[in-house]
């Protein structure tokens, strides 16, 4: 037995009052004046015994009356359905969790799985009575914090309407998410009965976001909560999907081929041959291949494609239709910039050679470079914001605020190249650049004497990583096939690159995050790449002047400067995947209006106001509930494009194993004995009725208290009459 109002049980202390009164009455001695003992002799011993028994009976009745009243106010509740047939069920709070993910669009002989889930939820509405409340949770919205989402429904006609309106959603949320929000809902209710209903296909991909054994066990639900799992069965599904798309790091140029790598998965138990995979750019099919897909496997496929225009290039990889069409197409977007804004920072002698090298356009298809230069003391946030690539031709003369703005610039996707100045100071570099930009410490400068240099004791290149994108096509003609271009870098291949004669070079303590592109014969690194946030940084070991080396005079210098600017300027050209329902942070360094317009794949526009952070405009956007391409614009200027693709876990149609289900229950602290798995929809109502509990008995205790009060009244009247007659 459980009490809904246990605080009222403190009233049981009042049951001691009749006992105390009875004991006090026994201690009172009455003086009766009489002239003879004849009256005592006339009293019968049996009458005295009867009087005492009735006094004890009154004591019991009065104590019982108080006990029954107190228990009635404590609202006792008894488990079991037999008693429930005689009384009224306690009020119930229930949570309906309906899986509306795309995997529920698969059909079997009874129709679409989502439609079956809706019908099952509607079939038990009549089991709830006035005063009950139901929380309806669409699994795709289980992480929402929208106002009113946590309000229960007591209008069951409205509940049926809301269930009918549930449609499939590309947003994936796990059943663990749904159970967590159900625990929050039930924690706020005072109703005795608490029930959770889950209508899902219970596939592996929807079970949880944290597979594996439960490390920390939680206790989300009290032990009286009952769970009803209704798995809608799906037939064997023939499903193939595009799992991922990768565009290897490369310099994207108009009319120049680039590589698209896709991973195609076979999620069924049957192998297939000659499955067609195609690539589309800006709506046009540009490549196609047929591949074999063994069962339960993933196969890579690679395409070489060419974009004939600059700007944003949007595309997708698509395979043939199957039983689950939503993962047959995967989108991507990249940008081939028509113009890259390069800012040279340094004194006149520092920027002389870089300006000459970058002033000419290497080819008609290459992105144009817009050059500007400035001295370090005049560098400000406005100039930084207007640049795509910043080349520091010296490491002296910068303030801490300038270093902080440069870090923000790189962290947000900008490209930065750093050359040491002629008057390079290792300690100053470590204090400002190494600390401010999280770069390796400088160990000092390796110098060769002029006398030794004359006899050939200078430093040269040791190894060159020819696989790096800045060398792609540098030593081959445009007609050279991709398959025959510079493969791996080896010491022998380094001789193909003309090395400058280096008299002095800065030596940096490289870390695990450093990527040496060109190393030196003295063990140092000539060119090192670093990743900082969304941007990249090149760190050179020699200045852009001739005091330390003849690098600016070599034939390598001009193409190296061009490729550096192009590579660093292309880092923000590609957009990564965004999962449906995820928040994306949109950033722009451009001077924009106060309102941005975001157009989704259905051409529905949303207007929002970005905030200002340092030199950027920033907007957090979470309305990513459609698959495809999104466009961000300010007035008529396109600021950014990004794509939303289906979560690959939706492609895995295998049903979760009992062990995986048990692990989820243990993780959340749910006792397996409280879980009822219903295999057939027709058995749902019977299972609910058989397991439901919570019959309130306060009415019965109140009726018993009334009966006891009547009996006490009759017994008390009889006792007074007998006492009066005896007197």
Give a verbal description of the structure.
The protein is of the alpha/beta class and 727 residues long. The protein folds into 5 domains: 2-81 and 698-726, no CATH class; 91-236 and 653-693, Rossmann fold, CATH 3.40.50.410; 240-336, Immunoglobulins (Immunoglobulin-like), CATH 2.60.40; 339-569, Class I glutamine amidotransferase (GATase) domain (Rossmann fold); 577-644, Immunoglobulin-like (Sandwich), CATH 2.60.40. Helix content is 26%, strand content 28%. It has 17 helices and 36 strands. The strands form 9 sheets. It has an 8-stranded mixed sheet, with helices on both faces. Strands 6-3-7-8-35 form a 5-stranded parallel sheet, sandwiched between helices. Strand 23 (515-520) and strand 24 (525-532) form a beta hairpin. Helix 1 (16-27) packs antiparallel against helix 3 (45-73), helix 5 runs antiparallel to helix 6 (156-164) and helix 9 (348-358) crosses helix 14 (557-569). The radius of gyration is 41 Å and the shape is elongated. The protein starts with a strand and ends with a helix. 36% of the residues are buried. The model is unreliable at 81-87 and 477-495 (pLDDT under 50).
TL;DR of this structure?
With 727 residues, the protein is α/β, with parallel strands linked by helices. It is built from 17 helices and 36 strands.
